[in-house]
Amino acid sequence: MRRIAFLSVLFCATCHIALGLSIPDGLLPNGDFEYGPKKSELNGTVVLGRYAVPKWEISGFVEYIKSGQKQGDMLLVVPAGAYAVRLGNEASIKQRIKVIKGMYYSLTFSAARTCAQEEKLNVSVAPDSGVLPMQTLYSSNGWDSYAWAFQADYDVADIVIHNPGVEEDPACGPLIDSVAIRALYPPRPTNTNLLKNYGFEEGPYVFPNTSWGVLIPPNIEDDHSPLPGWMVESLKAVKYIDSNHFSVPEGKRAVELVAGKESAIAQIVRTVPGKTYTLTFAVGDASNSCEGSMIVEAFAGRDTVKVPYESKGKGGFKRAVLKFVAVSTRTRIMFFSTFYTMRSDDFSSLCGPVLDDVKLVSVRHPRRMY
Ligand SMILES: *[C@@H]1O[C@H](CO)[C@@H](O)[C@H](O)[C@H]1NC(C)=O
Ligand SMILES: *[C@@H]1O[C@H](CO)[C@@H](O)[C@H](O)[C@H]1NC(C)=O
Ligand SMILES: *[C@@H]1O[C@H](CO)[C@@H](O)[C@H](O)[C@H]1NC(C)=O
User: Fold this and answer.
1) Which of 61, 86, 129, 347 is buried most, with the most CB atoms less than 10 Å from its CB?
2) Any idea which fold 229-369 has?
């Protein structure tokens, strides 16, 4: 079924009429909330009326926040433009968009916590949904961008971002800004590389104006990864970075392992038991003042290698290799960072080693080497 859907997507990618009707990559209409409610549809900051925010449908306690507004002694700053929305308890925002049935899409949005409580957001496009935990702050300015992906079951998609929280203070809820979409073209393994999306080039939309990357949240049961081919295991996110804002070893994109052993990135590949394989990959730093001794641990089935990297925080990388004999028809390739690292210019931002250009090939004639 999957394959048929995929082929029909490929076919349709050449039919411009269908593409023209579906949503282009980038911000959703009023995805940055710069168009706000009329004065008569606001009570202070509280939005009155389901359709008061242009292009969106809201429900529950939603506030329209202007950058620079104060909450207690906290100054609320907005990443794109001058406005954002805040979702109170059980509040949600929804937008219906045209998509291509069968196609995979990734959503990227920026969110910030405003109170100390544990916050999460439930992002959904029926029947898919994902709860994104927001208790870890990865950027010190409070804002992080998150990615989530879905496969379109219909030719319209209702994107819903919902705050399932029940806090004592209804105004304690996350701020949301810059909701964007990108169609994904899941890559396939090739003759020269058994890994899909080896250079992380295919992935979620990255905002041209934000310099903090995009978090790929832990994706335990979700096979629709915003980073096609890859799963994020464990509890925390990995960061998706681009060459416009960071140093990346190869191509335009890479991942930064920002959460130590709490966040592993993995892919399962088909292997032939008894056959010898080589896994090669690049380990570096993103040129984001992430300094110090780092180690990336790579696993292939039962084999493992620790790759030390001395980072000066100014960019650079080295290549590493793990040679192994497959013991099963499926081998889990996995990476994590041994240590936690903080940026030297900003002790509240998590950072870590960069991983890129991951290649897996079978060694054709291992016997000849002996
Ligand atoms: C505006 O909010 C205040 C409380 O903050 C409330 O007393 C008042 O009734 C609200 N006005 C409208 C029109 O909802
Ligand atoms: C998230 O939202 C979807 C759609 O409303 C719902 O089906 C799902 O149960 C929600 N998940 C959680 C954990 O609240
Ligand atoms: C990026 O920033 C520039 C200049 O600040 C602005 O003109 C442009 O609209 C911004 N683009 C987006 C997508 O926010």
Assistant:
1) 86
2) Jelly Rolls (2.60.120)
